[in-house]
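User: quick one, fold this
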Amino acid sequence: MQLLTGMMITTLISLAFPFLMQMMIDEGVNNKSKSVVFLVLLSQLFLFIGKTVIDIIRSWLILHMNTRISFNIISDFLIKLLRLPIKFFDSKTVGDISQRINDHHRIENFLTGSVLNSVFSIINIVFFTFVIAFYSVTIFSIFIVLSTVGVMWILLFQKRRKQLDYKRFARNRENQDKLYEMITGMQEIKLYGSETPKRWEWEQLQLKYFRLNIKSLALEQYQQTGFTFFTTLKNIVISFIAANEAINGHITLGVLLSISYIVGQTNGPIEQLVSFVKSAQDARLSMSRLQEIHNKKEEEKNENIEPNQTISHEDIHLKNVSFQYEGPKSPLVLNNVSLTIPRGKVTAIVGASGSGKTTLMKLLLGFYNPVAGEILIGDRELRTISPRLWRRETGSVMQDGYIFSDTIARNIAMDGKEIDPQKMDNAVVTANIKEFIEKLPLGYTTKIGPSGIGLSGGQKQRILIARAIYKNPNYLFFDEATSSLDANNERIIIDNLNDFFKGRTVLIIAHRLSTVKNADQIIVLKNGKIAEQGNHESLTRLKGRYFELVKNQLELGG
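Assistant:
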């Protein structure tokens, strides 16, 4: 309302200028009255000062609105993004999501720039066209017809602009992905001497982007040249008719100058309306891309989860579970798996690479739902339990666990609450990383770089183990949790974990004998099926698949 009020006042001030000009010519110059000329010029000065002050205030208001709209659009997008299931992110690249976030700038500019300026322009055009109609119906008719033709010319190219906009989005996404890939994969690029080929790949993308920009520029030139032609034709025709009317004595010289001033003043607002049409199309395309995300099905179905709500600690049952990542014709990663993970016991899963071990763990964490069969926590099916509530009860160390750009303490205590010193001490002692942390100059407040830059693989893994322990969950899922550790650290941590595991339901995926030999039960997977099941002694005596794995991969004799 404040902006609209300011715009109305500015319009009225602008509307006063042609009448003041007419008064100055007809009353002041023709009658040789210096006092009238002085009064008109003084009025123009004060009106200009008032208009400038209003414009300054309007700019501050627009900045305020820009900030709020930008914040809300991105915040809502991130809220939605964080509610989507993991499988959504399997098919989306960093560049794709980043470009969708960048789309909010076009929506923000449209809402706070184009819309408001267009309202202002429409008000100006309406007032000024009424004045033109008051002066001359003929000039008014020419003004309306040629202005409409100019706008229609712009609209002819909108479909082509839409096609180019989608191509530009794809090129920007590819460019961003390629740069991100080059930066994060710099170690491999250096090791294998791929600097030149990788740069060539980026240059090829820039060449495609350049060609796309040429097409966009050509289209813009067609639009702008046609619009400028009709605008110039309108100005020439109206100037000729107005001058002819003045020569014939039908209008005064002051009216002639007023008409010229008004036509000049409407050119800007009409161009603004044309810009509004383009911005509206851009904003609509950006909104549709954001809506693609907003329309996705959320992972969480139940929003009303109490802060202290828990689920009972029960056995985990898998009944005829099958899973595949792609469509129905893709290979089954898990095929008709049935097993029980007993409450308060340690279950180990072993098998060759690609046998489905990590996939099974991701199903148990609720990242995916089985395509067949069911997973039960006690007598409740896992898919009916809130994923957020279920993960509140679980602690996990994944193969690709992520270290954030934050302090060591905040990388371990990720719940956002005040850090519990006792839980923190227990976590770092169990993960055998306390000594390392306390030797650092800033200790627990030491800032770690993105993805754990500056830490060794073993140090990252110990922080991930400490993170799972700090959570103090009933269920623990470890996927190759000690694969980066040296033998000494691994032995200490395994001993510590064996104490921590007591009374908890634990699932371990590992290739090392030291990690799995003390498990209460061992599941051997082969090609997505259970090949063998038992404990270390019974499976070793069997001399089957497990024995072969132990002999070849699990370092028998440890």
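User: anything notable?
Assistant: The two ends are 77 Å apart (CA to CA).
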